[in-house]
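Weekend entry, working from home. Most of the wet-lab plans are on hold until the incubator is repaired, so I used the time to fold the two sequences that have been sitting in the queue since the last round of cloning. Logging both here for the record. First:
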Amino acid sequence: MKAIVLEEFGGADRLKLAQLPTPSPGPSEVQIQIAYAAVNPVDWKIREGRLKNRVPHEFPLIPGWDATGTISAVGKNVRRFKVGDSVFAYCRKPTIKWGTYAEYICYEADNVAFKPAALSFAQAAAIPLAGLTAWQSLFDSAQLKKGEIVLIHAGAGGVGSLAIQFAKLAGACVLTTASESNHAYVKQLGADIVIDYKQQNALESIKALYPKGIDVVFDTVGGETQKKSFELLKEGGRLVSIVEPPDNSLSEAHHAKGLYVFVTPNGGELQHISDLIQQGKVGPIQIQELPLEKASEAQEKNQKGQSKGKIVLKIR
């Protein structure tokens, strides 16, 4: 099969197109013939070796954790799926080696979901990792409830685009930060208040609007933004980050909870998200398509950030 391969840590130039043996599914796995794979920040972080002390790596490795495509084979114990089913999945394995920048992947059937028919394969590829990240952060971790006020940093990004929709659907008041060019986009997604982080002091603006504090901050930026965001929370508020674990001393000083999420594959939650999309309650996020052969360019674009939606790689 055709795949993008990384043989050592380094820059985007380390990504090479190669031919590898096509994997066969184990008893509880399905083989997915991949149509599109999405590009996520974790992909270039893996390439640069930033996760080497957290997750086992084995070279040569194929990057990519998002996939959509068609079931092309099933393991002997799989009953839910059959050959020809359209599916999508967040394909993170215990060892980083077999990723989704490839024509095929074999993955545990329990972590796979049916693709919403309302989306194209390209649109669906952008959903699994970002969708599960937003869902697990807002609901499993921060326990966001109806009527609460939530700030979602970087609402125009892949995770932010879905987090806004999920939070609005749950009945929360949604604040988000975005550059002026993305204001119309995030308002269309459901944001109640949009603050231009480039043109004004976003945190001071939110303090002025909500002097008693807000309930939840969803941090997708980290660094100083995360630290200063504690100042926005009311007593008992929650800050959940997907970038880095929050400082415990800041949590204690502001009488708030600091939470960290490293998204976990979950076929049940992904199927629920798929159903919400199929029902028209959650819409697709904006995508930019590039061919698999331009994986290096795609990762470089993603690494520069400030993009709207997500980049997806066309495999076939």
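Second, folded right after the first finished:
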Amino acid sequence: MGSPDPRQIDGLGGAHPLTSKAAVVSASADSGADVDYLFLQVAVDRPEVTGRQNCGNILAGVGPFAVERGLVPAGGDETAVRIRMLNTGEPAVARFPTPGGRVAYTGDAEISGVPGTAAPVVIEFPQGGSPLLPTGSVRDTVAGTEVTCVDNGMPTVLVPARTLKVTGYESPRDPEEDTALAGRLREIRLAAGRLMGLGDVESATVPELTLLAPPRHGGAVTTRTFIPVRCHTSIGVLGAASVAAGLRLPGGVGEGVAELPERGDRVRIEHPTGFLDIDTDVDTGGFAPAVRRTAVVRTARKIFDGTVFPRSADPTPAQGR
């Protein structure tokens, strides 16, 4: 990837956490999955690789890759690949077109923030085993701020933007340059991490923090997401899934901020470069709320197939030099 270097000149990274990621895919030994997917986040300015979080955007390419590499046979005009996400142990199913037994990448699906169109990859997340509310409460006070901590594939802390004295409509660059806001976000994230059972998250990228503001373009809510202090130029798939589920919880901090649709499971999450639609069905009638179904439409395109040559390890400096 070219780390540690803020421009990642000597590598394939794009000098931002969103473009400094890797997926490791292999045939699965689990009878309920076809392939295993391990997501690795590569720090840009530090020599650090972590698997403590998952990534739904990279997940969109796992199914097509599995067919391309012969890990899963094409299943006719459409192929479904069962994926075990090793970072969380949770399952996902990716469906995408494979006419003639070959992966089709061209299509009409359009994703906000992604140039052009491509074939749709429908990703469905069956009900997982992790609790939707890691703290056991729909609303917690963390570092003096009321939040809702949710985990629907990505540990996420929902915070009404107004409680941090921002609008939630700022461009991604503005909150990154706000040192006072950065300090508050760090304080909330560290405290929330402990409360959510994640331990010391000082060097981790989870939980993510998502600021909520009323929608401006017909969606359910406007978001600004931080991983951990860099402001996402859009929103991750699993982060959006957690936001959508959190908005459906009676008593959560999304009440009075979000405008949920009267019918259907679809929730439109607005973000800095457009929107992302998430289908989420949450059961709130039991002892603890649980997600019955989550699905999202994404796209993936094959860009490169070849060999990457890593830089050789630097020799140990001679003594006294």
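Plan for Monday: verify the second prediction. The two ends are 28 Å apart (CA to CA).
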